[in-house]
Amino acid sequence: MARPHIRTYLSLLIVFVSLAFGERIKDIATIEGHRVNLLHGFGLVAGLRGTGDGKATLFTVKSLANALQKMGIVVDPNRITIRNVAAVWVVAKVPPYAKAGMRFDVTVSSIGDARSLEGGTLLLTPLRGPDGKIYALAQGQVIVGGYEARGRGARQVKNVPTVGRIPNGAILERDLPFTMDSREVNINLDFPDFTTAKAIQDVINERFGRKIARAVDSATVKVTIPEEYDPVDFLAIVENLEVRTSYPAKVVIDSRTGTVLLGGNVRIDPVAVAVGSLVIRVVERPEVVQPPPFSPGETREVPRTEIEVKEEKRRIVPIRGTTVQELVNSLNFLGATPREIISILQALKEAGALKAKLEVL
Predict the structure, then answer these.
(1) Three-state secondary structure along 217-261?
(2) Of 53, 67, 154, 351, which is least packed with CB atoms within 10 Å of its CB?
(3) Backbone phi, then psi, for 78, in 5-degree steps?
(4) ∠ CA(145), CA(151), CA(155), 5° rounding?
(5) Degrees (nearest 5) of the Cα angle 220, 223, 228?
(6) Separation CA 90–CA 134 (nearest Å)
């Protein structure tokens, strides 16, 4: 029996509801200097079971030859043929205020033609900062979250076996360049907003009973640490203060996956919408044509395609959205799919009925 061609789309609608509670400053902003630092380096993973780089990856062979030469073993790179070593790029995020001797995780990614890093060990690898200086050393057993199994006639791969992690695989060798000598610090908002910046300024001044905080712009609040406070004790108090946040209404659309995210403060003017669905059904019914008896003709298969087009009729439905829940209820009552909701929201924005910023990814 001929089967119609069926095309399936997976879509997702997400509603973000903003609660009317205060948020801690540490959750919506970052204190100057309290940030992660990025390190990277080039290394080799050894001990693979024939899943490493091939001879065509020249930089792996030359890197291995250089590493052996440093150990006092001179080898001609042109005579090296191995599959148990892979060239990798090592990256790491160093926690804020990290000191020498602190351990942290590293991520290892193959940059050659290796099939898997499972069972490999990262050789001693220096990690450098953006300034080119070495800040840490990485080494250890690579843990991979996937696998690859292959035979002569089949191959199966799960997740990404060419990327792995080494828990606590790096040791910081020098302190990161940061000192808190000044009595002034900046609080940087994760999402710049003038209303939220002023709210942070007011809550800090109210807590300490003096004007020690000043909103410089929508992203920065400058705070002067009082002389009677230790900087650490003062910042511990400040980062736990609660603030009423205020961010613009926004609708985020990812048209590739059909994902729609509605902010909690999205509003919409009353409108009427009609959405029609077009269903196309294609069925292949090939026919076999036989030639007359004793004729020189050949039996052939003649393609036959049946196309059925059905347009669904829908009525005009009013949409009211004084709140996000009411807007979602109206769209659900309309029976619109997430992809139809994307078109509806874009049309509402063009008509001026959608009171939110529309961001398309």
Answers:
(1) CCCEEEEECCCCCCHHHHHHHHCCCEECCCCCCEEEEECCCCEEE
(2) 154
(3) -70, -15
(4) 50
(5) 165
(6) 13
For the chain, state the CA radius of gyration.
31
b/e per residue, 218-228, with b = 16+ CB within 10 A? ebbbbbebeee
pTM for this structure? 0.56
78 DSSP 8-state letter: G
**Which residue's structure tokens are 């007359």?**
292
Residue 248 carries which side chain, given as an amino acid letter? P
3-state helix, strand, coil in the chain (%, to 5): 20, 40, 45
pLDDT of residue 45: 92
**Residue ranges for the chain with pLDDT beneath 50:** 1-20, 278, 280
Q: Please tell me the predicted confidence (pLDDT) of residue 10.
A: 40
Domain-wise residue ranges, the chain: 1-18+248-361, 37-172, 181-243
Nearest CA-CA partner of 237 in 179, 191, 187, 181: 187
Question: What is the reported pLDDT for 355?
Answer: 74
Nearest to 251 by CA among 268, 273, 272, 275: 268
Phi-psi region of 133 (alpha: psi -120 to 50; beta: other; left: phi over 0): beta
CATH architecture, domain 181-243: 2-Layer Sandwich (3.30)
> What count of other Cβ atoms lies within 10 Å of the Cβ of residue 187?
27
Q: How many CB atoms lie within 10 A of CB 274?
A: 10
Query: Tell me, what's the pLDDT at 144?
Result: 87
Separation CA 230–CA 16 (nearest Å):
39
Please tell me the predicted confidence (pLDDT) of residue 28.
87
Neighbouring-strand partners of residue 273 = 317
